[in-house]
Specification:
Elements: H1 2-13, H2 15-27, H3 39-64, H4 79-86, E1 94-96, H5 102-107, H6 112-119, H7 153-166, E2 173-178, H8 185-196, E3 201-207, E4 210-211, E5 214-215, E6 236-240, H9 244-259, E7 265-270, H10 290-297, H11 300-311, H12 316-339, H13 373-376
Parallel strand pairs: 1-2, 2-3, 3-7, 6-7
Antiparallel strand pairs: 4-5
Helix pairs in contact: 3-4, 3-11, 3-12, 4-9, 6-12, 7-8
The structure holds thiamine diphosphate and magnesium ion.
């Protein structure tokens, strides 16, 4: 058991693999898309990863103060996967995030204050307290609202990208799935149809080793998830998900390919879930030492910091300026979210199926105070004419 765990950890552990992939990137620096990134963009990648981590750490503080109403899902150790991949998209492209893609949403324009409001179920949060984490979307900014059903966003994004193709729009869609989700029927049907239609879709499989408490080897006999691509006749590639530049490179190549009309690519990003499924999960099923080893040897933020300083020659002041900016932004966002009102019962009537909401002038209207009144109260609000 110990040996199996050890070898799995070694296979996933990736110090050697990471080194190989990092060196292959270095071997032909001009050939990879990341070689085209300017200095500001190189530092921006660090900013997004640091922002993601700081925001989640702040959410943990709020959770422990019982101010987060529902569960809290972390992406600790997976920040490079989310940020590097979303960074490869253009403004007009659309991604479909999961709970561990807070970083992707931030890159696409989600604001820390709205994320905190959302977790605190505030009345002026994007879902007005009707949803308790980050299951909300904004098509203008290019992120689609996620749903919990594993794999189901693959057929949805197949449809989204088929519409891009039918309209001759040069837009690309990116859908994230976990290792566990690759064993669902929806994943299979969605990717199969997207492949045969040559939809401009990139499928990112975040192989973080676990689905809830189930390790990969207990839920699929496939060893390398990239090999599932063979069944659909599309390219499948595997990359080091904790190397933000490698993630950017592999995603950018797939995005460019999709935009050229060459269809779907499946990318398996090797990473590790250093926290439990959610904050309540004590990870008792994880072999001793595994989490510490990943934290010590393969933290994506630490690794990129070394690239920034040792290879790209940023100095300590550049890094410190980003860190200070992140702290300031999270503090300001927290204050704003804390000051937001909780929803009123009548907020539940807004933005559902009928505009204006068909409410009867009954008791609950008397003395009504609604957090959304100022924001999106429909013109005909309260004018019951049924
Ligand atoms: C179809 C379906 N089955 C089961 C669940 C319950 N469930 C929610 S998250 C999860 C594990 C997901 O694991 P993975 O796909 O590897 O993503 P990760 O959480 O590791 O990012 C499960 C089983 C679900 N939401 N949908
Ligand atoms: Mg997983």
């Amino acid at each position: 058991m110990a040996r199996r765990t050890g070898s799995r950890a070694e296979g996933r552990g990736s110090r050697s693999r990471a080194t190989t992939e990092r060196s292959s990137r270095r071997a032909a620096p001009g050939a990879r898309p990341s070689a085209q990134l300017g200095r500001a963009q190189q530092l921006e990648l660090y900013y997004w990863m640091r922002l993601t981590r700081a925001l989640e750490e702040r959410l943990v503080n709020l959770y422990r103060q019982t101010k987060v109403v529902g569960g809290l899902f972390r992406s600790l150790g997976q920040e490079a996967d989310a940020v590097g991949s979303a960074f490869a998209l253009e403004r007009r492209d659309v991604l479909s995030p999961l709970i561990r893609n807070l970083g992707s949403m931030l890159v696409k324009g989600a604001q820390p204050a709205e994320i905190i409001r959302q977790y605190m179920a505030k009345g002026d949060s994007p879902t007005r307290g009707r949803e308790l984490n980050i299951h909300y979307g904004d098509l203008d900014r290019g992120f689609i609202g996620q749903i919990s059903h594993l794999g189901d966003m693959v057929p949805v994004m197949m449809g989204v990208t088929l519409s891009f193709k039918l309209r001759n729009e040069a837009r690309v869609g990116l859908v994230y799935v976990g290792d566990g989700a690759t064993s669902t029927g929806a994943f299979h049907e969605g990717i199969n149809f997207a492949a045969v239609q040559r939809c401009p879709l990139v499928v990112i499989v975040e192989n973080n080793g676990y689905a809830y408490s189930t390790p990969l080897a207990r839920q699929t006999a496939v060893v390398e998830l990239k090999d599932k691509a063979l069944a659909y006749g599309i390219p499948g590639v595997r990359a080091d998900g904790n190397d933000v530049l490698a993630v950017y490179d592999v995603t950018k190549e797939a995005v460019d390919r999709a935009r050229r009309g060459e269809g779907v690519t499946l990318i398996e990003l090797m990473t590790y879930r250093r926290k439990g499924h959610a904050e309540h999960d004590n990870q008792s099923y994880v072999p001793a030492g595994e989490i510490d080893r990943w934290a010590r040897e393969n933290d994506p933020v630490d690794r990129y910091l070394r690239v920034l300083t040792d290879e790209l020659e940023f100095d300590a002041a550049d890094i410190a300026a980003v860190d200070a900016r992140v702290t300031e932004e999270i503090d300001v966002a927290t204050d704003a979210a804390e000051a937001s009102p909780m929803p009123e019962p009548t907020d539940a009537l807004v933005g559902i199926y009928a505009e204006p909401p068909r409410i009867e002038p009954l008791w609950y209207r008397a003395g009504i105070r609604s957090a959304v009144e100022a924001h999106e109260r429909a013109a005909g609000w309260g004018a019951f004419n049924g």
